[in-house]
Amino acid sequence: MWGGQCARYLHDFLRFDRSRHHAVEPRRRLACRRVARQLYKLPVYKNKRVLLVDLESVCCIKADGRYSKLFTDSENYFCNLSISDLDKRLDPRLFFRVHRSHIINLRYAKSFEKVDDHCFIVMDHQDGLKIPISRNKVSSLKEILGLA
């Protein structure tokens, strides 16, 4: 009888991993805290200074490795946030991710073009930026712009 109880106790002890149990709870609490805060201004770098750019002046954002490049009416800026971070933190009523490497400001959308099998959105920007739209985002963008 002693051997059976010992085996049962050992089995229960091994099944309940104390280190994992105690480590899981703090991770859950941290995950709840990691909700991405919405951005109201974008931190950008220019001449060794950090500038805060208004979201309304951002025409589009292009991925540049782990960083991103912002296009505004007057200038282009370097931002240390990745495109996926920006996608999570920007207002979805104002910005839309049209491609894995591009986010556009919907207010700057000028025209929608289809060339062969590829779709583009032309932005109302001084350079006349032509942004590619991924195939799986075309219908969503058309719906948002009222084209569908």
Question: How would you describe what is shown here?
Answer:
The protein is an alpha+beta fold and 148 residues long. It folds into two domains: 2-33, no CATH class; 41-145, Beta Barrel (OB fold (Dihydrolipoamide Acetyltransferase, E2P)). Helices cover 30% and strands 37% of the residues. It is built from four helices and ten strands; from the N terminus they run ααβββββαβββββα. The protein has helices at residues 2-15, 18-33, 83-89, 138-145; strands spanning 41-46, 49-54, 58-64, 67-72, 76-79, 95-99, 102-105, 109-115, 118-123, 130-133. The strands form three sheets. Strands 5-4-3-7-6 form a five-stranded antiparallel beta sheet, with no helix packed on it. It has a three-stranded antiparallel beta sheet with strand order 8-9-10, with no helix packed on it. A two-stranded antiparallel ribbon has the order 1-2. The radius of gyration is 24 Å and the shape is extended.
Question: In the CATH hierarchy, what is the superfamily of the largest domain?
Answer: LytTr DNA-binding domain
* CATH-derived topology of the largest domain: OB fold (Dihydrolipoamide Acetyltransferase, E2P)
User: How do the strands line up in the largest sheet?
Assistant: 5-4-3-7-6
C-alpha end-to-end distance: 75 Å
Chain-averaged pLDDT: 84
What's the CATH class of the largest domain, please? Mainly Beta
The biggest sheet amounts to: 5 strands, antiparallel
Task: Examine the secondary-structure arrangement and name the CATH architecture of the largest domain.
Answer: Beta Barrel
- Hey, roughly how much beta strand do the residues contain? 35-45%
Indicate the radius of gyration in whole angstroms. Answer: 24 Å
Q: How many strand segments?
A: 10
- H-E order: HHEEEEEHEEEEEH
Look at the helices and sheets and give the structural class.
alpha+beta
Number of H/I helices = 4
